[in-house]
């Protein structure tokens, strides 16, 4: 039987690890150097693609196109 919040701490720790894994990354440094990110900029577009998962579709499409070329 599933109880809401049953695995709260496990889920929290997983999310915390995912969050901590991006600290010190190139993306974090880039965003810190920008300050406030304006809509429509390259950074905002890339961030949106990563957050929605469309970056995977773009990568698969580009990879497929390259594979078909050879």
Brief summary:
InterPro entries: IFI6/IFI27-like_sf (IPR038213). With about 70 residues, the protein is mostly helical. It is about 70% helix and about 0% strand.
Descriptive keywords:
IFI6/IFI27-like_sf; mainly alpha; 2 domains; 70 residues; extended; 70% helix; single chain; 4 helices; 0% strand
Fold and architecture overview:
This protein has 70 residues and is mostly helical. The protein folds into 2 domains: 1-35, no CATH class; 38-70. Helix content is 70%, strand content 0%. The longest helix has 16 residues, at 54-69. The mean pLDDT is 73.
- Look at the helices and sheets and give the structural class: mainly alpha
- Strand percent estimate: under 5%
Helix content: over 70%
General form: extended
- What is the rounded distance between the termini? 52 Å
Overall pLDDT, averaged? 73
């Amino acid at each position: 039987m599933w109880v809401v919040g049953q695995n709260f701490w496990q889920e929290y720790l997983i999310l915390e690890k995912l969050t901590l894994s991006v600290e010190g990354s190139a993306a974090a440094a880039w965003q810190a150097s920008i300050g406030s990110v304006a809509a429509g900029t390259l950074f905002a577009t890339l961030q949106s693609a990563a957050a929605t998962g469309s970056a995977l579709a773009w990568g698969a499409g580009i990879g497929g196109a390259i594979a078909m070329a050879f």
